[in-house]
Amino acid sequence: MDIISGQPLFLLLCFILSCFLIFTTAKSRRSRHQVSASPPGPPRLPIIGNIHLVGKNPHRSFADLSKTYGPVMSLKLGCLNSVVIASRDAAREVLRTHDQILSGRYLNEALRSNNHHDFSVAWLHPSSPRWRMLRKVSVSQLFSPQRIEATKTLRMKKMQELVNFMSESSEREEAVDISRASFVTTLNIISNILFSVNLGSYDSKNSSVFQNLVTGVMDSIGNPDLANFFPFMRFLDLQGNCKKMTDCSEKLFQVFREFYNARIVENSSRTNEKDVSSRDFVDALVDLHQGDESELNINEIEHLLLDLFAAGTDTNASTVEWAMAELLRTPKTMTKAQDEINRVIGQNGAVQESDISELPYLQAVVKETFRLHPAAPLLLPRKAETDVEILGFLVPKNTQVLVNVWAIGRDPNEWENPNRFEPERFLGKEIDVKGKDYELTPFGAGRRICPGMPLAVKIVPLMLASLLYSFDWKLPNGAVSEDLDMDETFGLTLHKTNPLHAVPIKKRAIN
């Protein structure tokens, strides 16, 4: 009787024990699965993890490591878990397949130093109403096809001013700083779209000041910082990135405030309504700020202008400089591009935007420049909102995800002779930079694609074609193409360490 009465209890204990064993075995299997599915990576040192492997050019260091550990590679940077993506297929999963899960941003200390992450369309989360509103304002007022077409005459005027400056330098047989000249041109295009004024002058030091401020913002955000790897060190700002970000951005904010306040005064004294064709972006911002239902506050306006001003000037100018450097290193390629331009333009005196579609080799030169020298070599850092699988590897929640577009652009599995500048590789192919071809995504892709891309793909080829049509080029002081260095300085954007200087030689009369 005791045995019979104790049997249900025994069976119950057996059932509980079985469930426990099944649960722990399943958990163990999941654990083993997760371990096996974690992205491979280099061995880690105590405390610092893999920080010692980063180097002064992280995009290159990561590319070298990916050759050993694969296209989805795990790194431990102090306390920060990171995954680096280095292939087209892995990039497609990040930028398209799991775009929603990976659309958050990893925020560093430089961004937090002036609260830029709370107001920036580049850093806010796409689920945020503020992000949607700022993105909508940017696209509708600046980057829609209608707005870009409306500013075509402005771009042509600034290209003519660039050519005139180069012509004067040619007459004096002076070498020109291509970086600075390109920056002044893009600066004046952007400042006129935003404020209807020229902020740059080819003969003024003020342009260098603006260039230094913009570069300072980009470098402070992009430079590796111990405070990002060890949160307890945040208050020290050992590398000065927070101070640099605050100082540079505040000086730019002061410029923006002056224009904004002056426009309010101007509008208040105006008796008639401003002509639609003469309205600029600040007019639109004033309407959104001071309308019956205010949609923007002054902080949002300042930080939006910082985004547009910095990204719109720095990236376009550096791309033109890299393109000219590559062409000077390969004179036959430059001659081929010039021959095409001369054949299409003839003696018309100036390259028009409508001509660019008739210049496939020039377009290939631009694509090849984007491939070898993407403005943002690691794009902007993403963050996993939840656990996610990329090419079968588990990327845990809150991991920083970096897409190494610089490495993808030089992947021998995708490109023949990947380190050579060969625009011919794009002829007859439909590969583009607009976020659909994941072997070439200098502007990113998906919901996080750069909103300024439609303007950039107008400015860069137009500026390059204008320089190649009106002038032949040579290196100063008898230097030959083999002497030209291509050293890089890493930041949020990739700059040529030593600015390119070249001598323009006028080919024809300048109108």
Automatic annotation (TrEMBL):
The keyword Lipid biosynthesis appears for this protein: no
InterPro entries xrefs: Cyt_P450, Cyt_P450_CS, Cyt_P450_E_grp-I, Cyt_P450_sf
Keywords: Heme, Iron, Metal-binding, Monooxygenase, Oxidoreductase, Signal
Binding site for heme: C450
Signal peptide start and end residues: 1-26
Needed cofactors: heme
Superkingdom of origin: Eukaryota
GO terms for MF: metal ion binding; monooxygenase activity
Pfam families per the UniProt record, alphabetical: p450
PANTHER family listed in its UniProt record: CYTOCHROME P450, FAMILY 76, SUBFAMILY C, POLYPEPTIDE 5-RELATED
Annotated family: Belongs to the cytochrome P450 family.
Protein name as it appears in the record: Cytochrome P450 76C4
